[in-house]
Amino acid sequence: MSNNTAIVEISQTAGQFRSSIVLQADHKYIDVKSILGLFTTLVNSHQYELHVHGPDEEEAKKAMTAIFEKHGLQVTVV
User: Fold this and answer.
1) Which residues sit opposite 75 in a β-bridge?
2) For the chain, how long is the longest CA-to-CA vector?
3) In this protein, which residues make up the domain named HPr (predicted)?
4) Are residues 38 and 11 in contact, defined by beta-carbon separation less than 8 angstroms?
């Protein structure tokens, strides 16, 4: 599974939700719906935190956790 596939799937999954979904990697905050932001972030970091806020945040947290795990990426939802 290539990193590009992971980035596209993460972004597409995030795009299904109205909630704000922000990935914290090191000291950067990236809008997960931004493919370009993910390209520059997922390559360089290994510890990720997801910040999810909005009307459908519970569903978004579950979906995002599942897609990160599918691609072997370590993520903590905070």
Assistant:
1) 48
2) 32
3) 9-69
4) yes
Per-residue pLDDT of the chain (78 residues; tens, 9 = 90+): 468 899 999 999 999 999 999 999 888 899 999 998 888 887 666 788 999 999 999 999 999 999 999 998 889 998
- Total Cβ atoms within 10 A of residue 45: 16
Q: Locate the domains of the chain by residue range.
A: 3-77
Report the C-alpha gap between 11 and 8 in whole angstroms: 5
Compute the distance between CA of residue 40 and CA of residue 7 in angstroms, rounded to an integer.
Answer: 10
CATH class of 3-77: alpha beta
The answer to whether the beta carbons of residues 37 and 59 sit under 8 Å apart is no
